[in-house]
Amino acid sequence: MENTSGGGDAAVVPPEIDRWNWGAFVLTWIWGVCNNTFIALLMFVPFANMVMPFVLGARGSAWAWRNKRWESVEAFKAAQRKWAWWGLAALLLFVLLLVGIFAAVFATLKHSEPYRLTVQALEANPAAVDLLGQPISTGIPMGGIQTSGPDGEANLSFSAEGPRGEGTVYMKATKSFGQWVVDRAVLQDEETGQRLELVEGASSGPLPGVEP
Predict the structure, then answer these.
(1) Which of 38, 64, 190, 201 has the smallest number of Cβ neighbours within 10 A?
(2) Which of 65, 82, 108 is the endpoint of a domain?
(3) Number of domains in the chain
């Protein structure tokens, strides 16, 4: 078959290469610039960038064949296989980066002072110990901590489990002049919905995630 690559829109695309292109789907505009397929730059246009990866995946091989001169069909296929591997590597790197970010965030929350103080209050509360049993294990906290200089606020929740039962701890703490204080912490029993106040003298105000 005649080599029609680089012939523009009128060029005939060999059937064996007119298939899904993983490199174009994952690497989008980077793949597009290197393959003379500049329509991929629509990735920088809001809303269009939501559909362009799929368009490039479906039409990218044909566009790359028509927009750039290739030595042969075999050379084109070899180049696109390399792009597919590069795309896979980039995707794996992105996933590992996300996992690392989430792991770092959760680790920071679990080693935070508000979390530590709340776990201490949980383990020191006789009613909570009676409900859950000992030893008590706690899960990864969810929520957020905001600080500004010596002041801050924390709203967290985490699971708590013992030999007798399990539940969820909800807490709110404030930081003033560099010192964290747990304003309120509640253990909600998983089975009965019973709620126990873990901090003596705490206010009865609402806690995030706990229905009144």
Answers:
(1) 201
(2) 108
(3) 2
CA separation, residue 178 to residues 145, 151, 165, 175 (Å): 14, 6, 36, 6
Structure pTM? Answer: 0.65
Asked whether the beta carbons of 64 and 7 are under 8 A apart, the reply is: no
Alpha-carbon distance of 198 to 192, in angstroms, equals 17
What residue numbers bound the domain in which 64 lies?
Answer: 14-108
pLDDT for residue 86: 96
| 64 and 25 together in one domain | yes
In a domain, 5, yes or no: no
pLDDT value of position 107: 87
132: amino acid identity, one letter: L
Using 50 as the pLDDT threshold, list the residues of the chain that sit under it: 212
